[in-house]
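Table 4 source record.
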Amino acid sequence: MDDDTDEQALARAPRWLFVAAILAGSFLLFLVQPMVARMALPQLGGAPAVWNSAMLVYQALLLGGYAYAHWLGRVPPRMQATIHLAVLVGAALWLPIGVIAMELPADAQPALWVPWLLIASIGPLFFAISAQAPLLQRWYSIASHGRDPYALYAASNIGSFGGLLAYPLLVEPGLALKAQSWLWTVGYVLVLILVAGCAARLPRQAEGEPHVATHTPAPEWGRILHWIVLALVPSGLMLATTTFLTTDIVAVPMLWVLPLGLYLLSFSVAFRDDAVLPEILTKFAPVIILMFGATLIAGHQKLAYINAIIGLLLLFTVAVTLHARMYALRPAPDHLTGFYLAMSVGGALGGVFAGLIAPILFDWTYEYPLLVFAAGALCPQIFLVPLIGDLWDRHRPAKTVALIAVVAVLVWLGIANPGGVFGEMHEQIAFVLVAALGLVAIGRRPAYLAALAGGLILFGGYRSIQLSLTDARTRSYFGVYTVTDYPDERQLAHGTTLHGVQLKGARSTEPTTYYVPGSGVGQAMQALPDLYGPAARVGVVGLGTGTLACYARPGQSWRFFEIDPAIVQLARDSGKFTFLRQCAPQTRISIGDARVRLTESASASLDLLALDAFSSDTVPMHLLTREAFATYGRVLARNGLLLVHISNRFMALAPVVSAAARDGGWHAVRLSYEPGPNFVAEETPSGGTKVEQVETEAESASEWIALSHDPVLLNRLVARGGGWRQLGTWPGFQPWTDDYASVIPVLRLLHPELAND
């Protein structure tokens, strides 16, 4: 091999090695977050304060890792390698990865205990791995004698994307938590070996970095703030898109994977030289933001899946455009770690704004249009055709003011529609005109932003503001709750999911929706005096509007378990729903994760326990595990009755409950309720009566499973009639446990054979 070939081989080897090390580290980083969440779920519960605290811990550790990588740049390369390898070896003392076993106090505050628990469990490992991407890119620049290292960031995000998809699709369905922990441990050892190999490529000079041709001036604070803002908007928009899609468009399990995955892929697309796609998206980003950002705010349910696709395309366009801009403004390699530190700060601020501040500050997902507007303000403005640029050549300020004024008038006409000037399609016509002005304004940022704001206000913005002013909406970390009044009923919706209906007038105490007398839970509640006498003890997981309280009878003892204080306020304190006040005003409500609260309850303290927490897109898996059913069995009396509500549009939960019943020695029956036709009588002009069938949401189809360790009691329930049948079995389906559970086997979309289960 000649000298040139030797040099080429040496040049290729470091790149391959550094890419592998960065990719593997990022893969582990995104694998550990959902893994530890699953490990901690039974111990900490699923309250939002728990996971908000966990997110802050991850963000803090990530920032710490980037700051540590930036600090290491002050010492010679070989010293950097020695220190970082020592940190990796020291963190290995926390292997195999897992959550430390400890008993939390009953009054433990998540803001204090969750950070302490997670830092003590995985803090050193997460910190050491989080420094990989910026640190190894700097090492690559040193080892390759000044080559541009930024393209290696694509490997980091490909690794992150791989870890993101691998956990829910491969790791969680295929491995128990103990095996997952050992898999991560093996991966950590591999990363340690790869990092050691990268360290061996560093030059042996003891002082300075003579291999760097020049030391460039430090970036100014204005440039650093620009990096932070360019990173903040895509990060916040990624979380806001997830919230907006699942709240106002369509609630689908694991939908959060798509926005996060596109966000990560955008780095791989944008952080490249001579890339065609970023150039195309950058030019047309103002068009996409103007057209799709405004129309998506309308949130039309009939086009739910199309709107979801539009939202994802909008997110990807914004992320690629702003990340490409950030890449174009990158500093020289000797300031690389500071650049990534600023980017990490921006990403963290975006996450804090969309994930923590917005749910407190807003009663709707206002952060979404705000971030769309911010994206329009930050994306490069290029005239679509030269002719438009020529039109703006003269009298730019005057033309800008005139366009803004015209947009304001069009928005007013679209909303007020005085004299029916725009007809029934007044909003749509006004938006088309505003959008046309916006297209002409691309290249003149103030005029463009006026058109973008007008579009956002026309398509949904002003209606959301009006609804906020009526106090009809409440928001918590679990989502947006909207109370809607109709002539004969009042409804509570959680995003796109109906969560309760109360009839008005004399029928206000009638159970509705999933809880009507003919449903499984309705029949069980009516059977309480026969099964347990006049002093039955009842527990209900999931308060909703408090509908089930209207089955309470004098002498009975009732207790609700509700994780969201906002629901308690709506059902009990606001006066908007009166089931509790009218039917069971003395009912106790325990706020917090139901499994944690039931673990604290006395043995044999309930006769009937109803689980009603599985009808939305997110299933609290820890309430359906073997250990959870053991807790229910302990809290229930020996002849106690467990009711499980399994109505779910996306998941077939009957196999899960059936496997748990088989495993725990429960006897189980099932009732599928279908509401009958509803008729209303109307007087005709001739004085006669016309009867018409109408659709109503006061009654809903429902699926309930009743379980008991006492077959005699279960037979007594079935003997009362109503359509109970034996719960089927699914051979080969293993019960969920705290160590193993996955929603993949029960997704109806992936398993058509479960469509009717």
